[in-house]
Amino acid sequence: MQKVVVCGESTATQVVVAKLLQSRLALTILVDAPTPEKVGLAALSALAAVSENSFQKATPKQLADADILVLTDFAEGSLADIRQANLAGMRRLFKAAMAAGFAGKLLVATHESELCTYFAQRFSGLKPEMVLGVGTMGLTKCFEHALARAFDVPTGAVTAYVIGTQTDYTLLWSRAYIGATAVMSLLQDVPDAAGIMHQVQEACAAFAQAADAESFSGLVERLVAAVAGSALIAPVAVRYDNGERPVVYSRPVQIDRRGASAIANVSGSEAERQSLTAALSALGEQITAIEAGEN
């Protein structure tokens, strides 16, 4: 049975805990929230009373033997407010968790998950492969579903990926397949190919704009299952060493009991690689600005 501690003080915290309480996975769920009323602790306790998985408020000592820490947002409001609260919340959390001896895996299910994955790994000192952000996993599902609808095929027949970051992402059209056939090849025989591509891009843009705690919660459950042994290949945010400074972005990796393991690099076309480079440059500038403010 996996011991999962959900950390945060937002609607997302409550939604993720509720999802895991009702999961068919065998889990012990704890919540780490300095202000319990912000996450509806009483309502979650009531839900736990009619759920198979157990639930309680976490103590610092219980962080020591947790298998997984799940990070959710530490505030509501503007993106700037959420970012500030997330950085402060992570500092507090990891000071306690690492002092207690936490050595498990870390799942980052926040806004700007690539940014938070970078700082979660830096603050915790955990190995990069043990710190995973939800990244573009949801966008990838949206991309695959939109392609399935456009070509009227089962979703399981589609393999496609979105890389980059949650807010600055690239659809890998050049590496999208239906069965064994490249989507770009199929589009050559479709009269309204441009219309289909626009329709799919709009669906992904709408998801990126509207994705919230409800969509994150399902991704968290699947990632918890993956690190518990039900392996998965998906694009999640992971830190990679790249020259003088590390980068964090979402690309397909294998997720299992070992954490994240690299598979064959899915690089895309020249235009797609340039789009990724621009996204990483923007994220790097944002990280540099935050670190400069710390100093």
TrEMBL record:
Q: Kindly give the InterPro entries that the UniProt entry links to this protein.
A: Lactate_DH/Glyco_Ohase_4_C (IPR015955), NAD(P)-bd_dom_sf (IPR036291)
Query: Which residue positions does the secretion signal occupy?
Result: none
Name the record gives this protein: Lactate dehydrogenase
Origin species = Lacticaseibacillus jixianensis
